[in-house]
Amino acid sequence: MTKFDFPGESDEYRRARKELLAAEIALKDQVEHVAAMRRQLPRGMRVPDYVFREGPADLSRNDPADFSDVRLTNLFTDGHDTLIVDHMMFGTDDEEPCVMCSMWADGYSAVAPHVMQRASFVLVVKAEIGNLRRFARQRGWDRIRLLSSHDTPFNRDFGVEHANGDQDSGLSVFTRTSDGAVYHRYSVGGELDEYNQRGIDLYSPVWNLLDITPAGREEWNPDHGYMERHVTPGPSITR
Fold it and tell me: Is CATH 3.40.30.10 the classification given to domain 51-208+217-227?
């Protein structure tokens, strides 16, 4: 008997559930093993002190006069020496960001105050900062720091921009040493390699919740439309 056994279940169900539980425990162990390997990666290359554009925490202030430059070294806040960057697919010619990336950002903005107890956390796009902020205000992304890498090679340097300007999704982690130098520690994209996608599915609760349902995710994809009916802005971030 386990705490997952309930009255009225058939023997067939209990056997299948016991087998599934063993697989879930093995998966949990593998996830923890991979996380340990990730943490043990040696320090990567030293990176330039890229200059990004950002605006004030209040997303209603979207006058270009309110925008300013901020260096990579200044993104390490609250005494943290670790920085997580969400690379969002939102190019210079796009009217709005990738639908899938936006779903990830919905979650990241919501949990950013928790993450920022342990590390700095920002969202970076190639689009102009004003375009990002207009969409972010509609979506309620006011708990995560929003940046544009428009005039820098940052996206190209970290594998999320193609030669034709098309953008990819991903996450990167950087660390800062006591002398102020910044080093790359880890990057992962939506495509792990040419044969394996779902590289960042682990970081969205949407897919994980759908995967525990009988129908699973199937061919479902998010859409900007229904979010317009549900967004309620939360408290703005502080810096």
Answer: yes
